[in-house]
Write a structure and sequence with these properties.
Layout: H1 17-28, E1 33-38, E2 41-45, H2 46-56, E3 61-66, E4 69-77, H3 81-90, E5 95-100, H4 104-109, E6 117-123, E7 142-151, E8 154-163, E9 168-175, H5 179-186, E10 190-193, H6 195-198, E11 210-212, H7 219-227, H8 240-256, E12 277-278, H9 280-286, H10 299-303, H11 309-320, H12 326-341, H13 343-353, H14 359-368, H15 373-394, H16 404-413, H17 420-426, H18 447-474, E13 480-484, E14 488-494, H19 495-503, E15 514-518, E16 522-526, H20 528-561, H21 563-587, E17 595-597, E18 602-607, H22 610-618, E19 627-630, E20 637-641, H23 648-664, E21 672-676, E22 680-685, H24 698-711, E23 717-721, H25 729-747, E24 750-755, E25 770-780, E26 783-792, H26 799-806, H27 811-831, H28 860-867, H29 875-888
Bound molecules: adenosine-5'-diphosphate and magnesium ion.
């Protein structure tokens, strides 16, 4: 449904004072639902009420009238607000929270007609910090994009993305054409951009997640101010566009957060440099972080052995952005190898990680002051776990030596000025859900709080004592002192005893009964002594609450002062979680450390597809059949043929996933693997392949193919699955042929190319680096058996007929098909386009066409036409020219 609430507002004129406040809030936030605080409820009015009632299943009632019409109203209780917000945010709504800024008493004291209310916050998908509103294992990126103008011929954009929940901030300047790839990598929860970009092709698919905003002028200064530094250079080199995007993102966060900013780590420029480039189509086809339609499983799901939410987020981020430089990849492999060998260290780390709280997000909530007692506990316990992790690494006795990444993480685990001990002393053993409930701070931490609590408890004891005294004095053994929300403490006696007390004329004094309420079965009284105690108790309670708030503020301050260190510890723990998880995965056997080489090798021994393998195992299917791959120099291009369902697509993807896993810093599902670093990874599926399920059109298939041909280079890795399938046979074959030639001759990248056009294997002799391979199929008791084995050489030319025969198609039909095939082949030989030099395709797809241009037939008509200069012709000359042209027609 449309997540923009209707903006046509009823006229505000004639509204009651409270409704006038509502109109002001709605006017300032027309694209949000207004949650209007009234006592214990947030109320929605007019169209907001109807919309929210529909989404949340609330009842619509009415509250008063506005201009003669009843006002529709729907409400949610304040204490249950989070759950309702979560549902609205997930549906793409934004919510403006309009709070009461004073108590009714304060309003009365200043003779205001209504309690003052203000929008304190706009809840949007990318600016929430509440646990219930966040996905634990996914980052929640707010992405800002601004135009940067052309550089080196390419239009560029500046981008900044930040996760309010963890304080992580990155920027990048990139070609505008790569914005789609960035979106696919980050999967942002929300995007802000100026209109020109917001309305562009890249962002329109995101629909309601895109907010239009103006690009702030002087972004670099604004951003520097936000981090309290003289200039952004303090954090690295930023382009103007990056700085502007940063400022725009900050503006948005500030505006939604009621003017304040959460704690943000220093921005990291060049967030995309040094990463393996993958475009949106590639990510879709490889199903890295999520399964595409139809499938349930993705790479992340199959390899994730992390134990914490932060570790899960880190693993997802690494798989979404594998590295493209050797040193950091090797460092990660070293860390995994170490933790694989050092069982005890891994065991100790994982024990400390299991159930460890999410410190990064707890810190985020503390920084925006929307925090809960459990967030303080999360830091206390998280820091304790981090200390245990450090101890586990510290125990490692030198062999094998602790690699640098693990050593650095260990050092970061225990931050300077860690508030752990202080929190441990301060926090109560049992924490309330909310701070207002009281009891966050335990006894023995703050003397003043303890004294106030003693007073409060003494008053409580005194009330108990008074209950006994009154029972005696009034002669009612069953007298009970009870607390009532509005009336405070009252002594309750059964009706008969109450009537008797009412009839008495008691002597004045502190214990003299004063009647307050009569009910069906009881009477309620107070007395001077009871009201005194009541006052004392509520005073002591208020003061204790006030004092506790002071202590909690102090604890929060301690945490925020240590925030950079705590955030670093949280990141170190997350990184160790990922390394230990990769080692854990490998410890089961069948995974190996990939050897990264300088050359553009790609050599895998007995590789497997982790997702298909896991699915087969889960369904108790046959064992996954491992396969080798070798795209080393001299055989860079593998042309894979074989019938449908033989395992071609699986084989292609499993090798592409090896690249992703290896460069993300993990081990790979193979016996051995050797590969040169890949700079760009492409994966494409032809339209007709069942994996795409007809989602795309042939046009999409071709533009995605065009992207490969325009961008791939010698360091790239390309997987093309049935490209050219989405059109007529000859078209498709021609396209596939030309694409193969371009990949082989011009782009010179490592390529796996699966096709059902076995005619393409005719290219094997022409393209020296093309190695044909095929899927083995055999017959078993009259059944077609796919062996899922990749072997050298092309598939039998007539495998289709072979399969038909195996499948039991009647012998006459197969016989007839053989005859038809023979005659078709005969005719094809007559044309024989595939045996020759194929001049038609020589320059296909090339920007800088090499090789001979297609020969051009002489065309005298065209030449004659070209020779005519119309301006120089007389009428008579024109007529003659026309006759001359006509003569060429015959
Ligand atoms: P194709 O692309 O040739 O049509 P797929 O790669 O889609 O074939 O594979 C079809 C099915 O065969 C897969 O869903 C999987 O269940 C099974 N399969 C593929 N490769 C293997 C393998 N190496 N070992 C075991 N089963 C496999
Ligand atoms: Mg396939």
């Amino acid at each position: 449904m449309d997540s923009t609430p209707p903006t046509a507002l009823p006229e505000a004129e004639g509204a009651t004072p409270a409704m006038a406040q509502w109109f002001a809030a709605k006017g300032a936030h027309p694209d949000a639902l207004v949650f209007f605080r009234m006592g214990d409820f947030f109320e929605l009015f007019f169209a907001d009420a109807v919309t929210a009632a529909e989404v949340l299943g609330l009842a619509v009632s009415h509250r008063g009238e506005h201009r003669g019409q009843p006002v529709p109203m729907a409400g949610v209780p304040v204490h249950a607000m989070e759950a309702y917000l979560a549902r609205l945010i997930r549906r793409g709504f934004r919510v403006a929270v309009c709070e009461q800024m004073e108590t009714p008493e304060q309003a009365k004291a200043r003779r205001a007609p209504a309690v003052r209310r203000e929008v304190v916050r706009v809840v949007t998908p990318a600016t929430v910090t509440e646990e219930a509103l966040l996905e634990g294992s996914r980052p929640s990126w707010l992405l800002a994009v601004v135009p940067e103008g052309p550089r080196g011929g390419d239009e560029r954009v500046g981008a900044a993305w930040l996760d309010v929940s963890t304080g992580h901030v990155c920027t990048e300047s990139l070609p505008a054409a790569e914005l789609g790839a960035l979106l696919a990598r980050l999967e942002p929860a929300e995007v802000v951009a100026p209109e020109a970009i917001a309305a562009g092709d890249a962002l329109t698919p995101l629909g309601g997640l895109v907010r239009e905003a103006a690009v702030p002028r002087d972004g670099a200064r604004l951003a520097a101010e936000a981090w309290g530094v003289a200039g952004l250079e303090a954090f690295g080199a930023f382009t103007e566009g990056e700085a502007a995007a940063l400022a725009m993102a900050l503006d948005y966060v500030r505006a939604t957060g009621g003017g304040t900013l959460p704690r943000l780590a220093p921005p990291e420029p060049r967030g995309g440099e040094g990463t393996l480039r993958m475009d949106a189509a590639t990510r879709r086809s490889l199903e890295i972080l999520r399964a595409e339609r139809g499938g349930k499983d993705c790479l992340l799901g199959a390899v994730d052995r992390t134990l914490t939410a932060a570790g899960g987020r880190e693993l997802a981020a690494r798989l979404a952005a594998p590295l493209s430089d050797a040193a950091p990849v090797l460092a990660r492999h070293d860390a995994v190898a170490f933790l694989l060998a050092a069982d005890a260290v891994r065991g100790g780390l994982r024990e400390a990680l299991r159930g460890a709280p999410d410190m990064a997000r707890a810190l985020g909530r503390l920084s925006v002051e929307r925090f809960f007692p459990r967030d303080l506990a999360a830091l206390r316990d998280g820091l304790a776990r981090a200390e245990a992790m450090r101890a586990a690494i510290g125990d490692a006795a030198g062999v094998p030596p602790v690699p640098p990444l693990v050593r650095a993480a260990a050092a970061a685990l225990v931050p300077e000025g860690s508030p752990r001990a202080e929190l441990a002393r301060a926090l109560a053993a049992e924490l309330p859900a909310r701070i207002e409930e009281g009891g966050v701070v335990g006894p023995g931490y703050d003397g003043e709080l303890d004294a106030l609590r003693r007073l409060r408890d003494d008053a409580r004891g005194a009330i108990l004592a008074l209950q006994m005294d009154l029972a005696q004095a009034w002669g009612v053994a069953s007298l009970k002192i009870r607390h009532h929300q509005q009336l405070g403490f009252l002594a309750e006696v059964p009706s008969a005893a109450g009537e008797a007390l009412l009839r008495q004329k008691p002597a004045p004094g502190p214990m003299a009964p004063i009647h307050r309420q009569s009910m069906a079965s009881a009477h309620r009284f107070t007395c001077g002594a009871l009201s005194d105690l009541d006052r004392k108790l509520s005073q002591a309670r208020e003061e204790a609450t006030r004092r506790e708030a002071v202590v909690v503020r102090h604890l929060r301050k301690l945490c925020l002062e240590a925030a950079p260190g705590i955030a670093a510890a949280a990141r170190a723990a997350a990184a160790l979680d990922v390394h230990a998880a990769a080692a854990e995965l490998a410890s089961g056997g069948g995974w190996c450390r990939p050897e990264m080489t300088e050359r553009a090798d790609f050599c895998v021994t007995q590789g497997r597809h982790p997702v298909v393998e896991a699915a087969l195992r889960r369904n108790r299917g046959p064992a996954f059949v491992p396969n080798d791959a070798d795209l080393s120099a001299g055989r860079r291009l593998c042309l894979l043929t074989g019938p449908n369902m033989a395992g071609k697509s699986t084989y292609l993807r499993q090798n592409a996933l090896m690249v992703v896993l290896a460069q993300a810093g993990l081990f790979v599902p193979a016996e051995a693997a050797r590969m040169g670093l890949v700079d760009r990874l492409f994966s494409r599926v032809g339209t007709a392949d069942d994996i795409a399920g007809g989602r795309s059109t042939f046009m999409v298939e071709m533009s995605e193919t065009a992207a490969v041909l325009n961008q791939a280079g010698p360091r790239s890795f390309v997987v093309l699955d049935e490209v050219g399938r989405g059109t007529a046979t000859w078209d498709g074959l021609a396209i596939a042929w030309a694409v193969l030639e371009a990949l082989h001759d011009r782009l010179r990248c490592r390529t796996l190319f699966a096709t059902h056009f076995h005619e393409l294997t005719a290219l094997a002799g022409k393209l020296p680096e093309l190695a044909p391979a095929s899927m083995r199929v055999r017959e078993h008791r009259g059944q077609v058996v796919f062996q899922h084995l990749v072997g050298p050489g092309a598939a039998a030319r007539s495998w289709g007929l072979h399969v038909a025969r195996l499948a039991g198609v009647p012998r006459e039909v197969v016989g007839r098909a053989e005859a038809v095939l023979a005659s078709l082949e005969e005719r094809a030989r007559g044309l024989d386009p595939l045996a020759g030099e194929l001049p038609l395709f020589g320059a296909a797809g090339g920007r800088a066409a090499e090789g001979p241009q297609p020969a051009v037939e002489p065309d005298p008509l065209r030449d004659a036409l070209a020779a005519i200069d119309p301006d120089a012709l007389t009428p008579r000359g024109a007529l003659e020219a026309l006759y001359r042209l006509k003569s060429h027609m015959t």
